[in-house]
Amino acid sequence: MAKKKIPSKLTSRGRRKSLRLHGTIARDMGVLIVSGKHKPGDLLNGEIDASDRLRVSRTAYREAVRILAAKGLVESRPKVGTRVSQQDRWHLLDPDVLSWIFEFEPEDSLLTSLFELRKIVEPEAAALAALRRSDTDLKDMADALARMSTHSLAVEQGRLADQDFHTALLRASGNAFIASLTSGIVAAVTWTTIFKQRDNPLPRDPVPDHVHVYEAVSASDPKGAHRAMSNLVDLALRDTTASRKTRPKAAKLAR
Q1: Whole-model pTM?
Q2: 3-state secondary structure labels for all residues of 163-204
């Protein structure tokens, strides 16, 4: 007897539901790891116990663990189990990992290190962009600036425009390795912007800082572009540090 064919819409719906489930499990576990609830070296519950406790299938839990392993957060070994990896193995620039870090107050050392990375990469990228940018790059940056000004970074439309600005700038550097850092740098920019206004409005309008970067890149002024971007990152760190002083250490990120 021939098997009844399952409509493609139903199978697609089932796949999407499964993806949402193991993605949600991975997020919840990831937050526990990066927040320190599960510490490096800790052995997580076995697959059977964990799936029973979470009331999910073993397959969904297994897929969630694979996601975490791909991001460097855990290691699974036969006859040993799944352990939380040391922090130096975490893929900290993975957009998901960054979002999980900002679910709660990130450690001071992590926040400082994140801005140190931005200070190393972005001013140099801006300097290169001033020498190598195309008309298309300038147009993309100008369009992003216009949308940032219209919407402000207090709303999602403005933050998406901010992402587009930094993406265009890194691409304009003409360096494929710098461009490969785009997803991580852009995620860092976005999550620190959200973090800064979690409990209070943004302390100031950062759009003019971006305008200064654009003007230097447009004028083919590498030193000016480097200086403007360095100043932008310094001010972003100052704003982020100031915002941490106004709320409890364990405050949860509003989403």
Answers
A1: 0.83
A2: HHHHHHHHHHCCCHHHHCCHHHHHHHHHHHHHHHCCCCCCCC
